[in-house]
Each structure stands twice: as structure tokens, then as C-alpha cells.
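Per your request, structure below.
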């Protein structure tokens, strides 16, 4: 036989919780969040930079970046600082992954999409200026940063628009 609902509520109140959700969060320690590990983020960002350098050495010279270090500084490190300064890091979570890992996945995709923009423009026979970011990844503000279903890149061709998810 199950106890009447008011017994559970009385017990929860005696423990100091007004709601069932608050009690569950407390008992499962879901209301404790780990701090952001900035050293780990620096290591992950360094890995993205290494990936960029390896890609740059393997792509055709027509799309290789003349100064991959400047590219990484501009696209990777500046973007990371913007995200950090906007206070978005603690809100990055995805199916239980750490914010640092979500940031790594997002930054890697963001930077590599920019890296391959010249290649994409060549494939579609358009100028780089015809390749636009259209994803909902506005990282300048906590209010506007969110995952969305929109593709990352839109290409304006003579035949119309093409969207690509990176």
C-alpha cells in the first residue's frame, strides 16, 4: 500500500524542500555544478589549432592559409574570448557533456567551417563573399546563443541558395 500524498509532502517539507524537484535535485546532487576548467579549455583550443595546422599542410595550395597562426588567433581565440566574456560557458551543456567539451565541439566546427570557406566557394563556383554564416550560433550574448536547426552556411549561386551543415 502506498502512503498518502500528504505524508510524502510532509516528509519533504521536514527535509527543507518546498518541491519534489528541489528534493530530487538535492538527493542526486544535481544542484552542484563543477567550475569551468580553463586549463582544460586552453588544451582543447590548442588541439583545434593543431588540427588547423595539420589541415593546412594537407589541403591544396590554392586554399591553404598563408598565415594559419593569424587565422587561428582571429577565428579560434578571439571567438573563444568573446564566448567566455559573454558568460556563456557555464550554460553550455549537451546530453550531460561537460561545458568544456561542448565548447570544443562547437568551436572546432565553427573554425573549420571558416577554414574551408575558400574551398566551398571553389566547389560552388562563387566568390567567398557569396558564402554566408546563417546558423543560429550568435555567441556575443547569452540571450542569443543557442543551438538551432538552421544550417551553418548558405551559398548564393546563380541557381539559388544552397545551405550546408558543417
Amino acid at each position: 500500500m502506498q502512503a498518502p500524498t500528504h505524508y510524502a509532502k510532509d516528509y519533504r517539507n521536514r527535509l527543507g524542500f518546498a518541491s519534489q524537484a528541489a528534493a530530487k535535485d538535492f538527493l542526486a546532487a544535481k544542484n552542484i555544478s563543477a567550475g569551468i576548467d580553463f586549463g582544460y579549455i586552453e588544451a582543447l583550443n590548442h588541439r583545434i589549432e593543431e588540427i588547423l595546422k595539420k589541415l593546412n599542410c594537407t589541403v591544396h595550395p590554392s586554399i591553404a592559409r598563408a598565415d594559419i597562426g593569424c587565422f587561428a588567433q582571429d577565428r579560434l581565440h578571439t571567438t573563444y574570448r568573446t564566448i567566455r566574456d559573454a558568460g556563456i560557458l557555464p550554460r553550455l551543456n549537451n546530453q550531460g557533456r561537460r561545458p568544456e567539451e561542448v565548447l570544443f565541439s562547437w568551436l572546432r566546427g565553427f573554425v573549420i567551417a571558416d577554414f574551408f570557406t575558400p574551398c566551398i566557394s571553389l566547389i560552388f563556383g562563387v566568390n567567398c563573399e557569396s558564402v554566408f554564416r546563417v546558423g543560429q550560433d550568435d555567441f556575443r550574448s547569452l540571450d542569443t546563443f543557442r543551438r538551432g536547426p538552421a544550417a551553418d552556411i548558405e551559398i548564393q549561386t546563380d541557381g539559388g541558395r544552397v545551405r550546408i551543415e558543417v
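Helices lie at 5-15, 20-27, 38-58, 68-85, 99-115, 117-124.

Regards,
D.
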